[in-house]
Amino acid sequence: MPDQWWRDAVVYQVYLRSFADGNGDGIGDLTGLRARLQYLAGLGIDAIWVNPWYPSPMVDGGYDVTDYRAIDPVFGTLAEAETLIQEAHRHGLRVLADIVPNHTSDRHPWFQAALAGGPGSLPRQRYIFRPGRGDDGHLPPNDWRSVFGSPAWTRVTEPDGHPGEWYLHLFSAEQPDLNWDHPEIRAEFESILRFWFDRGVDGFRIDVAHGLVKAPDLPDLGIDNEDILAPPDRPGHPHWDRDGVHEIYRGWRAVADAYPEPRVFVAEAWVESSGRLARYLQPGELHAAFAFDLLRAPWRAPWLRSAIEESLAAVASVGAPATWVLSNHDVVRHVSRYGRPQPDRPLQSLAEMLAEAPTDIDLGQRRARAAALLMLALPGSAYLYQGEELGLWEVEDLPEELLQDPVWERSGHRERGRDGARVPLPWSGDTPPFGFSPSTATAPPWLPQPEAWKRFTAAAQRGDPESMLELYRAALRIRRRHPALGDRTLRWLDAPPDMLAFARDPGFLCLVNLSTQPVPVPAGARVLLASSPLTAGRALPADAAAWLAWSAKPDEAA
Ligand code: NOJ
Ligand code: CA
């Protein structure tokens, strides 16, 4: 059996626009990423996931693709992507790309042909066009809402100059949904997968994996909002998590399995429960799927524990690994989420995450340190979002005129959107662009960096044992070597209600203190790593976590 590396891999998410700018135009690119592979290898990760790099008008950060077999010139060239893949492999890093099958850009040749072809034409069948309702079809075909706000339908002007049919877009109007009932779509995406596998890509993160199939009659939903984080509110939802998606992924799995070295898929699927998520991970389907319940849990022991327990039980039922994540490019960075009063329920929407300012960044970072040790001690694989290893927070005061996320416009300026999690990384130096761009740069970073980041550059943290960066490096070093960590299971230990305590066999304990008081560390346990210094009395402070080596019977520990 080839090495099932994805079962316990630590994968680092590279949001290319904001990672490192090689040519000085203020936008991250492949040259910048190649120059930082050494940094990534030194961090101790196993793989990178690169957000969409394809040619795109960039209405939605590249999730609006015009050509799935090329690289956008702002990022580089196809030849450079191939070089990157080879260089990453030489550094011992696998490379996951991002596939966007739910929708294309409205500039994609297929959609342009659909517009030009007119109603009833063959090219229209690749998308979801319908006549409108009401007099002269002036109302959308149904009541579905775009995830970014406003109706999920836009009316086109037909080639004869008259207002005509409407097309479906679950995201922005520039992202028309594909019709996955069309055999050509299925064949095309399998061919795109092969195109990248043939170039050495080790796998794909699947964008909106739960959205591809729609109920044929497109029934009304009867509710007036959706959100990127909102799971389907009912069984049989007409456009989320429909049974038909599984057949598509069985086809993809067959494509991947035809390669001698494992090629893997990780699903982005916001579904109603861990049980529903496990359906994507049945034998013969996908390898992994993000357990977003952990990301949505407040910093409270019962919610964290139930998110972990439910995910582990669900993946165990299908023999798949759990896939943990605390932040990504779509949500408020967890330093900011945790640096606020915590609700007593999971977060339901992006708007809710954004509404709760002001943030206590010190508190958020302290909890984020503990959260990192919690996540990296869990069975399964973990995804890090670029900058979390530096302790970066959500930039909540970006000037409105610079906001680029379509959420800002489509919500009628009620929601600022996701740009605050996408600010270019600070690498070195005391002033922006903090080494993000070379000194010869001709443009500032595409979003402005806070001055306060000068204390949080990679260079400032490197070698400082108290820094977030060194905490991550130490944790990843231990995780790589310790026989108890990575894949398999955990054992919960008895603990007070606002503590999490679990054992990983052999000989490893993780304690997380979510109470407001220090908690003594069990005598006889040796501290491998702690997110905050222990007190003089050898207690774990509030909002801290520790990894302990333990040779006695672990049940006696907590
Ligand atoms: C999920 C992606 O992560 C997000 O950034 C994007 O806006 C939507 N899918 C639409 O592709
Ligand atoms: Ca650039």
Give a quick precis of the structure.
The protein is α/β, with parallel strands linked by helices and 558 residues long. Helix content is 26%, strand content 13%. 1-deoxynojirimycin binds at residues 60-61, 63, 100, 171, 207-208, 268, 329-330.
Describe the overall structure.
The chain has 558 residues and is α/β, with parallel strands linked by helices. It folds into three domains: 5-104 and 182-471, Alpha-Beta Barrel (TIM Barrel); 109-168, Oligo-1,6-glucosidase, Domain 2 (Oligo-1,6-glucosidase, domain 2), CATH 3.90.400.10; 490-557, Sandwich (Immunoglobulin-like). Helices cover 26% and strands 13% of the residues. It has an eight-stranded parallel sheet with strand order 9-8-7-3-2-1-11-10. Strands 12-13-14-18-16 form a five-stranded antiparallel sheet, covered by helices on one side. The relative contact order is 0.11. It binds 1-deoxynojirimycin and calcium ion (CA).
